[in-house]
């Protein structure tokens, strides 16, 4: 075990973020009653032999069981969904709410979401994001939007600037680092043009931006909500022709510790908002590693290897790949 990962593992156990911790798991993951305390989710984080940290079953898990839920540290709607989903939880807004609120920049699905967004949104509202958003739109960039939101959360005092340090970073190429410089400059100048003081944005350096982006690139999830209604089905069909099917992107702590397998035993689903639900795809034994699939598992061996190497920087060591399937 490398000293680096041992330290990260210790930090994970000590880590207490208000939005994504072991204690934030939904009680629906366990068998609770009004009188008994909910049992903790049947998982533990440990070190794997060849893939860094991973998540393991601490008890047998039955096929179909909801293992736990998780809320994001940071999330953001995709630019194509910004007027059709809640700006906080990414829940689809009813059509009536969409047209009613079309004149507004963004909307929230409930008072609760509005309240939970208040701190970062009060910061965000002080600045004019049109140039930044336009740059992302033209360049087809989605992750700088997550960095922007994280920066607003940090400035508002909601989270610490090192909140993502626990996650594994990508090894960024020099080409990527130089492209990123323009994004940092744009983000900084947008804040500078508002009345946010220099001391509040002292954390916003090129180094911070690069570190955050390197973690987001490996750990962000693309949020596609489960199709719940005929209207959803139609808009999904339209989205696949016109724009992105994903309603947004989000970064979590625990879901990011699940390693990949081309024949996974668990999956992550988003039913009606950004809250992730981790479910067992088959019966799992105590001690077995829980793995999700990062990509489309129906691709052939070569295509999977290429995407995993180019997108996530690793050569897959799962059993399916080891047998060249
Ligand atoms: C989202 S992280 C998963 C958690 C990670 N193991 C950690 O310690 O933070 C993705 C990284 O885990 C490693 N990994 C995940 N699945 C793997 C696999 N099937 N084979 C080899 N490495 C894997 C790779 O280093 C990859 O970039």
Automatic annotation (TrEMBL):
Coiled-coil spans in chain: none
InterPro entries membership: H3K4_H4K5_MeTrfase, SET_dom, SET_dom_sf
Domain SET: 41-295
A family per Pfam: SET
Gene3D superfamilies according to UniProt: 1.10.220.160, 6.10.140.2220, SET domain
Domain of life (superkingdom): Eukaryota
Record GO cellular component, one term: nucleus
Protein name (database record): Histone-lysine N-methyltransferase ATXR4
Organism: Sesamum alatum
């Amino acid at each position: 075990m490398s000293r680096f990962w041992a330290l990260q593992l210790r930090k994970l156990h000590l880590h207490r973020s208000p939005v994504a911790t072991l204690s934030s798991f939904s009680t629906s993951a366990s068998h609770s009653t009004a009188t008994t305390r909910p049992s903790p989710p049947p998982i533990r984080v440990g070190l794997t032999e060849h893939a860094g940290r991973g998540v393991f079953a601490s008890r047998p898990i039955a096929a179909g069981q909801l293992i736990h839920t998780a809320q994001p540290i940071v999330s953001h709607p995709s630019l194509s969904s910004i007027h059709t989903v809640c700006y906080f939880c990414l829940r689809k807004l009813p059509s009536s709410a969409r047209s009613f609120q079309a004149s507004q920049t963004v909307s929230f699905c409930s008072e609760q979401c509005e309240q939970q967004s208040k701190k970062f949104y009060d910061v965000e509202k002080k600045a004019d994001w049109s140039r930044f958003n336009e740059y992302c739109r033209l360049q087809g960039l989605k992750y700088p939007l997550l960095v922007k939101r994280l920066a607003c959360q940090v400035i508002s005092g909601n989270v610490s600037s090192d909140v993502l340090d626990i996650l594994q970073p990508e090894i960024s190429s020099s080409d990527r680092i130089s492209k990123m410089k323009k994004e940092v400059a744009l983000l900084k100048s947008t804040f500078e043009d508002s009345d946010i003081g220099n001391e509040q944005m002292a954390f916003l350096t090129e180094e911070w931006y690069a570190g955050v982006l390197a973690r987001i690139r490996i750990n962000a999830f693309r949020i596609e909500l489960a199709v719940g209604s005929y209207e959803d089905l139609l808009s999904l069909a339209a989205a696949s022709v016109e724009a992105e099917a994903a309603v947004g992107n989000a970064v979590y702590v625990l879901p990011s510790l699940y390693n990949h397998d081309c024949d996974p035993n668990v999956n992550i689903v988003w039913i009606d908002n950004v809250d992730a639900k981790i479910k067992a795809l088959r019966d799992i034994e105590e001690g077995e590693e829980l793995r999700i699939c990062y990509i489309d598992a129906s691709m052939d061996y070569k295509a999977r290897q290429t995407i995993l190497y180019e997108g996530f920087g690793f050569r897959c060591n799962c059993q399916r790949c080891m047998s060249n399937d």
